[in-house]
Amino acid sequence: MASGIGKHKILNVGPTEPWSVREKLCLASSVMRSGDQNWVSVSRAIKPFSEPGRPPDWFSQKHCASQYSELLEATEAPKYVL
């Protein structure tokens, strides 16, 4: 058996190109307005802000949720001093 084959399934739910800063800001703003459970509204709200040349499914509900999850993982929680 070849090493590493069949052990893990790689899940690619989002686009392969990175989102622009503008697209990420639009995503975060839309989530602030609509919440992180209403991906239909989030997706519709940010479609007009896509960069030129993006495929039609760039802001699909699944991709928006995936990108928002990545943003949360990359963000450090604020440290408060008491």
Question: How would you describe this protein?
Answer:
This protein has a domain of 41 residues. It has three helices and no strands. It is globular, with a radius of gyration of 16 Å. The protein starts with 20 loop residues before the first helix and ends in an 8-residue tail after the last helix. Helix 1 crosses helix 2 and helix 1 crosses helix 3. It is mostly helical. It comes from Labrus bergylta (ballan wrasse). This is Bromodomain containing 8.
Question: How is the topology of this model organized?
Answer:
Elements: H1 21-34, H2 39-46, H3 61-74
> Oligomeric state of the chains?
single chain
Mean pLDDT: 83
Order of helices and strands: HHH
The helix content is 40-55%
Low-confidence stretches: 1-12
**Strand share of the residues?**
under 5%
Short description:
Helices cover 44% and strands 0% of the residues.
List keywords for this structure.
single chain; 82 residues; disordered N terminus; mainly alpha
